[in-house]
Design brief:
- The chain has eleven helices and twelve strands.
- The chain has about 270 residues and is an alpha/beta fold.
- Helix 1 packs across helix 10.
Length: about 270
């Protein structure tokens, strides 16, 4: 029986064990999958080595250790190399292969919910690891343009300069103008605190703007603003399930159906 885990801090809330167990049932695969709390990067690194020694096949990595996961890998995809973020590690003796499936999860969820968004203009809110991890996948969808915005605008400028090495259709939007935007994606931490305001005002958007928040399990201020302005909106539960599906495929080389799992989880979160 293969052994897997998800490591992060906090980790108690993680739905990954349930999701991967559902995928395993679909494919008739016997596995164990557990949640592991790591206090800091030193503990994270030692935990990874202990799991390798115990014969684990791989782990998922969540905040705040995705950057550390990328650094300790012995092989990594080009996307991991460029984003500096990994959420999926595979073990082969002492070799650690790193992948990132966050961007794949976001793109696959958007495509399932709204169809192809090629030739669209997107606004990505936030300049942290969550935003950085999905940029290459978004830009790979042949979009018209990706705009970056963050309250500390210099962070968006720095991120744009980094991504300009590979892509040209990305720039900073210092003053938010939603009239030229088709999709707004919230990757800020504003959704963690429901008392905080939405990171941007949605009053001036046109009615066809689609709003997507990477957070799930609650109505964030951003999604509440979208609802109040009668805009189409989605939370990040589908992204969570689909990034897990991509990790599962990396480990087991089998595709899985994810929509029913998302629906089942959503009914338990309401």
């Amino acid at each position: 029986m293969k052994k897997f885990a998800v490591i992060g801090n906090p980790i108690k809330h993680s739905l990954s064990p349930q999701i991967h167990s559902e995928f395993a049932q679909q494919c008739s695969i016997d596995l164990t999958y557990e949640k592991i709390l790591a206090d800091d990067e030193i503990t994270f690194i030692s935990t990874i080595q202990n799991l390798i020694n115990q014969g684990y096949s791989g782990v998922n990595v969540t905040l705040p250790f995705k950057g550390c996961a990328a650094k300790i890998s012995t092989t990594k995809t080009s996307e991991v190399d460029f984003t500096g973020s990994a959420n999926t590690l595979s073990f082969d003796h002492n070799a650690i292969a790193a992948h990132t499936t966050d961007g794949i999860g976001l793109v696959n969820d958007l495509v399932e919910k709204i169809g192809s968004f090629s030739n669209s203009s997107l606004l990505l809110l936030g300049a942290g690891g969550a935003a950085n991890a999905v940029i290459s996948s978004i830009l790979s969808e042949n979009i018209s343009h990706l705009y970056l915005w963050n309250r500390t605008i210099q962070k968006s400028i720095d991120m744009t300069n980094h991504w300009h090495k590979n892509y040209k259709n990305i720039s900073v939007m210092e003053n938010v103008d939603l009239k030229k935007i088709d999709i707004v994606i919230n990757a800020t931490a504003a959704g963690i605190d429901n008392t905080a305001p939405s990171p941007i005002c949605l009053h001036d958007s046109h009615s066809a703007v689609i709003c997507y928040d990477m957070m799930y399990g609650r109505q964030t201020p951003f999604l509440k603003s979208a609802s109040d302005n009668n805009l189409t909106f989605f939370d990040g539960l589908g992204m969570l399930v689909k990034q897990a599906a991509a990790s599962f495929e990396i480990w087991h080389e089998q595709k899985v159906e994810s929509k029913s799992i998302e629906e089942s989880l959503r009914s338990t979160l309401i």
